[in-house]
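Morning. Coffee machine broken again, so started the prediction first thing and wrote up yesterday's gels while waiting. Chain of 176 residues, entered below exactly as on the submission form.
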Amino acid sequence: MSLFGKKESEYKGKKSIIIYFSRADENYAVGYIDKGNTEIIAEYIQELTGADMFKVERKIPYAKDYDTCIHEAQVEQQRNERPKLKEELNSIDDYEVVYIGAPVYWGDLPQPMVTQLEKLNFEGKIVRPFTTHEGSGLVNIPNQLKIICKRATITSGLAIKGSIVYSARQKVEDWV
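Came back before lunch.
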């Protein structure tokens, strides 16, 4: 059930988009990877829904090694920065359902996602959050989305441990 009492299956078949941030390179608990964990989950959702996809990317990527990356991300959050993006999505007017996916960075969305999401009008949209993590779950992200995605319906989210993304297809299917 969603936060508003609708079954999640009621959102299938609606025109949808997946907006996600994902990072490859060195990741916690899985080492160096060629494709980020959140991107893998986004691709599962795309396969199941036929949704369009938009990957949020920093203009200057985070460092490849994990420790430096998390330090950069933490400083960005502490300063409430809005990093420049490689490309921006200008409108979601054509979509009814917006899947928003990201790894959990210090309990919140990565700042590049905040940069992108703040530029969009979510009025009347259904927002379905998903995260990859190693123990945090969704933490503050649903509350953060309520603030950023004004006048949207925020549904219950999906949290997948990054270390099990390749075996999470059924969990994603059940959620979708």
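Helices lie at 37-49, 66-78, 111-117, 141-148, 169-175. Going to sketch it on the whiteboard this afternoon.
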